[in-house]
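Meet our chain:
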Amino acid sequence: MAAHIHPVMEARARLRSASGLALTATLMVAESASAQLRPLDPLDWSTVGVEEKSFVAGGGVFTGQRASLAGTEGRLLELGSFRATWSLGRVALELAGTALRIFDERSVFAEPLVDVLPADGTRRSDVGDYRVSTVVRLVEPSPGQVVALRFGVRLPTTDNLQGLDRDATDFYSLLAGRVAKGAFAVGGELGLGINGTRDPRHEQVDPLLFALSARYDLGRAKAVLELAGQHDTRPSPDRRGTEDLGEARVGLELGRRRWMSIAAVRGWTPSSPDFGVIVKFGTRF
């Protein structure tokens, strides 16, 4: 019996160690100190409660997108968006981001901030935000039901001159739940963000973060509906770079171990895109 118990205890110890290291690393980054053009993506439930690795890469194009720090509106192209996840069963570690953003200015709606280049009708380009996240399954799974906690940070990687993002770190934490029955599954998240601003009089905004996802398995494909956004519950006006965001996405996912997805995007807040298309390719191993 002792020979069988020892590996189990060893595995549990490794899991506790990995969870502790992930939490410590995340909090250390958060203490060190992005404008968010896009809201936080909904949780990928396929990475929760499994023991595998996955990688997703793709990009998107969005029209009617505002770059509020620059005071311009135009077309945003995101290239090299990725998400790498290491799932350990109860805990999943995630690194995600966007390698390049290219913004074609079409119109001006406000003066740029003092250290942002003024609009000249050409292109702005910069790296996107990078995120480090941890997902912890909170309770033992029951058939068709999962509860999890997701927390992490957006890292300061951007150039203030371009005005596509804030050079600051944001922290986020969301409670998530999912219910599946037959071919249909629905998941939701609700939590809080701690975002730094570019306004020295109001250095922090704490928006409510939310996400909703629904999937229907059609056999060879899955129909997907997602809502994601953030909302500052205070009655004061939006701080530039930390505005309310909201996107609806509807699309199809094709494949299982290796898959591709395409989704149409529609924003419902002034700082979110009018329309967009996202294409992703992924694999599990």
